[in-house]
Sequence to fold (397 residues):
Amino acid sequence: MRVLLVSLLNWRTSARLPRALHDAGIRAGALSVPGGILFATRCTHPRFTFRSWSAPEITEALCAAVASLKPQLLIPCDDETVHYLERLVQYSQDGRVTGLPRELINVIRSSLCAPNYYDTLYRKSALLRVADGAGLRTPVQACIDCLDDGRRAAGNATYPVVFKPDCGVAGSGVSICRTKDELNAVMANHFRPRDAGSKTAGSTVQADHRGACIQQFIPGKTSAYCFVARDGRVLAGFVAVKELVHPDPTGSATVVSFARSDEIEQMSRRLVSVVGYNGFGAVDFRVDQNTGVPHLIEFNACPVQVTHLGRRIGVDLCAALFDHMNGREPRSEHALKTEETVCSLNTPRVERVNTEEKVALFPQEWHRDPHSPNIQSLYHDIPSDEPELVLALKAAR
Fold:
């Protein structure tokens, strides 16, 4: 089996996936920026790059990569890449882009969600509306498109609340606001006039969407259902709990544990089915520390930083994909296979598995605190046998 990893933003979150793909028997090519982190691992071959950030240059490089490797699946490694691939399909259909090879459009379509949900997973407000429509539990929220909308919502809110830009990743722009004044200040900053040249470098096709959500604050930890799916069917998945995050309280995980929750799994499978999802992803939930009730809060339409870790608990997502694509019985069970000994994670709804194991993520925990005792006392997920990748990960932020 052949796949092509595509990364426009050079994020570190997918840098560990090529090794897991390789070990599962999947050949992984990579298309990224010159010197991209996907090229720091010995497990990507062949490698392709583009000369500039212009959409035509990137599209030319993508066409060449697909023609050369003939992948059965594209794996977008960041939200910008997902959005770019969606736009290629849409623009080829409405005539704004012409001459794209049919094999390229076909492999893109088979690597994303159903076309009628393009843009939905990228925008938090749209995603939660879809989840609500599917009968899934989500936080109470108000969607706003301008400062006046926000001020009206602020007057009706029950505090504390969470302010979230509609488009954003890794907690960027997210604020927990405990008073109306705090919320108004955060919104004023979010909706302030932008300089003409303030668009993020490398943003090729992303719309300048400035909407936001004001969400009910749910005290507790965030759990992610990490999975791989084909045609809206989850092939395998597991739950990872964010034990430590940086920066606290809205940043990326630096230490995780594993858990099992039938409710989280069922809600995730339902959403994956509704949007007809293909590939690796993760559904985020906030689990109320008082009731144990999980609330669906986000959908990550690309691999996340713990996607490769399922192997440690008998849920190898890459192996499940390989087996499915080759018509074999899966080597990974759809549900967690664990020892009988489990302990409650403050609630019977979410149970921790392999309770002695927490994982210190590299380089996330190292960036949080180079002298963290977790690096010594926990399993430290550092690719020691790939020194070039270690250096690249340390340099990445």
